[in-house]
């Protein structure tokens, strides 16, 4: 019997080492995980979870991913943020929460992660809607982001609205259509704000039914044409959820992509 790719969403993971708050709302927090082993200091890796920005999906489902990254020697923070369907979520709170969290987390993590944390801005690992938010943070506040690993990102909000991904998820985030809120789309849509200013790797499975790989292809092509340091890794046997599953065949490619960003950051 084939394994349900969504099984990772409910898989348990070890508890984080600490939870820190970057704001007053209960969802303005992040879980911290200490890196395994005794390796050299590395940049903080901030995991930005997906779930089409909706309240029913929180950071818990990225526990296996975060624990696996910590097991590879990365200091990790799982960022939470207000989402659509809850007070303060959607426009602009979801976006401003991510900007605030990304900016604050290196300082908040230092007392917990100590000498294993290299000073400086973090690397962002965002999946699906979290990939969108990671790309948004990099273009909106590039001084707070060292690089982005975008896993099946919603990299084109106008196209995602046209395709009605997840039954109106983009409209719920931004309060309507591109015609109704052109200024919001101009601010929030990575496909409009190219090229991304930080080193960026996009990984996308060609079997993805939640976020079509065509969104990443067009985004990366436009960004490269505009002079970006960006590359696309397509995984032919991968769907949407394998990218955050350390037990999937896609996992070595994800780990390698993050490692390449870290090397890029060091140089």
Automatic annotation (TrEMBL):
It is an enzyme of class 3 (hydrolase). Residues 1-21 are annotated as: Disordered. The keyword Hydrolase applies. GO terms for molecular function: hydrolase activity. It comes from the Bacteria. Keywords: Hydrolase. This is Alpha/beta hydrolase family protein.
């Amino acid at each position: 019997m084939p394994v349900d790719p969504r099984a990772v969403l409910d898989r348990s993971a070890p508890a984080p080492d600490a939870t820190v708050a970057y704001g007053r709302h209960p969802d303005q927090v992040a879980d911290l995980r200490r890196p395994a082993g005794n390796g050299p200091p590395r940049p903080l890796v901030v995991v930005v979870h997906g779930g089409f920005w909706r309240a029913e999906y929180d950071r818990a489902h990225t526990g296996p991913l975060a624990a696996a990254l910590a097991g590879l020697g990365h200091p990790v923070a799982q960022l939470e943020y207000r989402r659509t369907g809850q007070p303060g979520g959607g426009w602009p709170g979801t976006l401003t929460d991510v900007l605030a969290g990304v900016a604050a987390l290196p300082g908040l993590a230092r007392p917990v992660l100590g000498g294993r944390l290299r000073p400086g801005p973090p690397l962002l690992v965002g999946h699906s809607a979290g990939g969108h938010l990671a790309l948004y943070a990099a273009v909106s506040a590039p001084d707070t982001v060292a690089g982005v690993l975008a896993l099946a990102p919603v990299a084109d909000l106008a196209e995602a609205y046209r395709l009605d991904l997840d039954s109106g998820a983009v409209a719920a985030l931004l309060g309507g259509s591109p015609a109704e809120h052109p200024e919001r789309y101009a601010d929030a849509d990575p496909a409009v704000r190219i090229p991304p200013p930080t080193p960026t790797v996009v990984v996308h499975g060609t079997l993805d039914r939640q976020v079509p790989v065509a969104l990443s292809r067009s985004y990366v092509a436009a960004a490269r044409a505009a002079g970006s340091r960006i590359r696309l890794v397509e995984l032919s046997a991968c769907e949407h959820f394998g990218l955050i599953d350390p037990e999937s065949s896609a996992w070595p490619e994800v780990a390698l992509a993050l490692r390449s960003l870290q090397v890029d950051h060091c140089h």
